[in-house]
Design a protein that fits this description.
alpha/beta, 2 domains, 33% helix, binds flavin-adenine dinucleotide
């Protein structure tokens, strides 16, 4: 038997076990949400925007919970959702291979089960970290084995209210308007705001710099002098990709005097953090996020070594950037260490939650309540702009209105992405706790849908008339008792 067919046999067996487990657990649960129409058009119970890891986990959890009139849309072609095989330039995931990620409590749905079914326990034991492309292959299988209704090449371009429903404008493979009762924004790290671009890069010609999440042609940088801003994982990955493609030199321009070395939040990771963080008083939430933002997450050791093994790579610490100017087709960067000249720059400067930068959110952006709108108070600590811009979410990840009554549909729009972190902890962005996040999200949506339809559910209760007892199971002994008493 070839390795390929033995992998296929292993995967078939896994899929059979998964199907048996689902049957034992009576999953998916029976469909229970009453159908709705809007002016004759069908209405979805939930539309999920984004078919990356969070979108898949949310869609799967909804369907398993009997909310099955659901669809997910993703602007990317199938198999290219999220960063993994597009702009992620690391070799492996940072996360340990054992994380059960989006498996939703189903052992046969884990990466480990998928991997071992195909390559065996020995290969699993010798696997160090998960290659990023393999993680994407796993997510493709996850979607396929659960038959998740994801439609690719469809971009959501606009949100508006339609009575008590939400109307979504779609563009691409499906260009139409669809109606939904709830909307989940599983739009990823760049999906609420976009790239965070420092002030000193505003106005600099885009032919001379890229953001680390851009589609960068590294072969075009062969022999060139490259600057990479930042000391995080993406800085290392982009620097390494450039060096491996033959860049002439790569300087990492790092404002800090020291590299961050300790991955603090991973260090204290526990089910307490997963389930307890979102219930803490706001001051504690602020304190945790502020502390970890200040101490920063180090780049993985392997990614850092992937850069430092090149003699033409330099780590320039304590090197803050004052200005960036174009001079005769090259970049002149004035730094706290003096002037430096480059041919190209990569800004590994992360993402922002500023909804105002995204046209598809134009209708809701001005109404979204953020932590700056009263949830933050100065006693919590310094007013960090990035944190103040975080949406102030409800218990089911739903947005809240800045001014009561100004945009009621926000209560049915759920922010299931990285921007939820300050309110909900890290359960809607990274791999470790995404199943817990999907569970919390779906509980919120299920209870809202149930409450919204309570009249219908009560009417169903009253109308339900299928007897469990047929009347032949007992006889009424009262007449005999009355006779006995009369004697
Ligand atoms: C380079 C990189 C490496 C990472 N490595 C790790 C790691 O090792 N471990 C870990 O735990 N986490 C890691 N993460 C963090 C996290 O796991 C990933 O960001 C992950 O992709 C989050 O999944 P997501 O579904 O939230 O977003 P994404 O995977 O980014 O998916 C969002 C999807 O939404 C779609 N979309 C956005 N807007 C629209 C729209 N208007 N219409 C239609 N579709 C839209 C996009 O096309 C995209 O496919 C990494 C992140 C990055 C960027």
């Amino acid at each position: 038997m070839s390795a390929e067919s033995s992998n296929k046999t292993g995967l078939d067996a896994l899929e059979k076990r998964l199907s048996e487990d689902l049957s034992l657990l009576e999953l998916p649960a029976k469909s229970w949400v009453p159908a709705r129409q809007y002016n004759g058009a069908p209405v979805r119970d939930v539309v999920v925007i984004g078919g990356g890891m969070c979108g898949l986990a949310a869609t799967a959890k909804l369907i398993l919970s009997g909310i099955d009139n659901v669809v997910a849309y993703d602007a990317a072609p199938a198999g290219l959702e999220g960063p993994w095989v597009t702009f992620a330039r690391m070799e492996t995931l940072r996360s340990p291979k054992t994380l059960h990620g989006p498996a939703l409590g189903l052992p046969q749905l884990t990466f480990r089960a998928w991997f071992t079914a195909q390559w065996g326990a020995e290969a699993w034991a010798s696997l160090d970290k998960i290659p990023k492309n393999q993680w994407m292959d796993y997510l493709i299988w996850y979607r396929q084995v659960l038959a998740l209704p994801v439609r690719n090449n469809v971009r959501m371009t606009g949100i508006s209210a339609a009575g008590d429903l939400i109307a979504l404008d779609l563009d691409g493979a499906e260009s139409s308007r669809v109606y939904t009762r709830h909307l989940v924004l599983a739009t990823g790290r760049s999906g609420l705001g976009g790239f965070a671009v420092p002030e000193f890069l505003q106005g600099v010609d885009r032919s001379l710099w890229s953001h680390s999440a851009d589609d960068i042609d590294f072969t075009a940088l062969r022999g060139k002098r490259l600057a990479v801003i930042g000391a995080g994982a993406s800085s290392m990955d982009n620097a390494a990709a450039a060096l491996e493609s033959g860049a002439g030199s790569v300087d990492l321009l790092i404002r800090r005097k020291e590299m961050p070395r300790i991955n603090k939040m991973t260090g204290i990771g526990s089910q307490g953090v997963v389930h307890g963080m979102h219930l803490l008083p706001d001051a504690w939430k602020w304190k945790f996020v502020d502390y970890t933002n200040t101490t920063q997450t180090p780049p993985p050791r392997s990614s850092t070594l992937r850069v430092s093994r090149h003699a033409n790579a330099r780590f320039l610490l304590n090197c803050g950037i004052k200005t960036v100017n174009e001079e005769a087709g090259e970049l002149l960067i004035d730094t706290t260490q003096g002037p430096l000249r480059y041919d190209f720059l990569v800004a590994a400067t992360g993402f922002t939650n500023d909804f105002n930068g995204r046209p598809e959110f134009a209708a809701i952006a001005p109404h979204i309540r953020t932590w700056a709108d009263g949830r933050y108070t100065p006693e919590m600590g310094a007013p960090r702009p990035g944190m103040l811009a975080s949406p102030d979410l409800g218990p089911g990840f739903e947005f809240r209105e800045r001014i009561s009554g100004s945009c009621p549909m926000l209560a049915k729009i759920h922010c299931f992405n990285d921007a939820a972190m300050l309110t909900h902890g890290k359960v809607s962005g990274d791999i470790p706790a995404v199943s817990a996040g999907a569970d919390r999200l779906v509980r919120g949506i299920a209870s809202a849908l149930f409450a919204d339809d309570v009249d219908t559910h009560f009417a169903s209760l009253v109308a339900y008339d299928i007897p469990e007892l047929l009347g032949d199971e007992w006889t009424d002994s009262t007449p005999q008792l009355q006779k006995d008493n009369a004697l």
